[in-house]
Amino acid sequence: MRKGTTLILGLVAVLVLPFGISLAEDPPSEKAKDRYTWRTAPRHASGVAPDPKVHADQAIVMVMAADTFGWRGYFAVHPWIIFKRAGETSYTRYDVVGWGGGNVVRRNYALPDGLWFGSRPEVLADHRGAAASALIDQVEAAIQTYPFAREYRSYPGPNSNTFIAHIGREVPALDLDMPANAIGKDYRPITNPVGLSSSGQGVQANLLGVLGMSVGLEEGIELNLLGLNFGIDFNRPALRLPSVGRLGMDSVEQVTAKDLANDNAAKAESAEAKLKPSS
After folding, report:
1. Can you give the residue range of the structural domain that contains 37?
2. Helix, strand, coil percent values for the chain (each to nearest 5)
3. Which are the contacts of 183, defined by CB distance < 8 A and separation ≥ 6?
4. For residue 63, what are the β-bridge partners?
5. For residue 277, is the peptide bond before it cis, meaning its omega torsion is within 30 degrees of 0?
6. pTM of structure
7. Is residue 266 domain-resident?
8. Domain membership flag for residue 269
9. Is residue 275 part of a domain?
10. Tens of pLDDT, residues 103-134
11. In this structure, which of 101, 112, 264, 265 has its CB flanked by the most CB atoms within 10 Å?
């Protein structure tokens, strides 16, 4: 009897602790975005993506994710992908948006690195130059083969995380490591319960995104219980937890606004120097 009680209490602690950490990191009393509505929430550029005009000569592919709107932001994220080819001065963005009906895969629905209804995005994958150029055609092909373009369920999927996970499976070179709170990334139809993990570099077995396991180079070892993910990432050491996503090293080094400003300034100065006639 005591063992059973201990097991239940342990399970409750494992489920509740990550949510507590999420609340501690972003208390509701200090959460300005809780005062927003769908209409008033800011969606301006965050400055996370490099200026496409300054970096016109460079191909870029990035995957981003931000907390979902309102109370759901304590549990899940909304991801999207942006890219540009060398020579282009603007990004193309793709994500899945459930409202509005019809095809839920949206092209340029929002600004490439815009706040997601008040939430600043974090980078999940970042490729530049020749590496990015090699990925773009593959990413576009993966978008066209997304099997749930006219289906959407926020839980357990298919949803926006299911869409980005599909791209990750189809394009392993993207090196995509989706966080544990990307609910829906493990969604698989009951007719296809076993296959590649969302990184495209591991394997997983899962029933409709609510029960399963993933093992891979990017995601480490991860268990899925009722859509909540728990695991350990050995590649860039971190615990993988629901609500929190990651507790430890980031899967991709996050670019600060200062770093990006310095990078853009250096790129612009280099471009200007090329235009000046030599003495």
Report:
1. 27-254
2. 30, 25, 45
3. 75, 76, 155, 156, 157, 159, 161, 209, 227, 228
4. 81, 125
5. no
6. 0.84
7. no
8. no
9. no
10. 999 999 999 999 999 999 999 999 999 999 99
11. 112
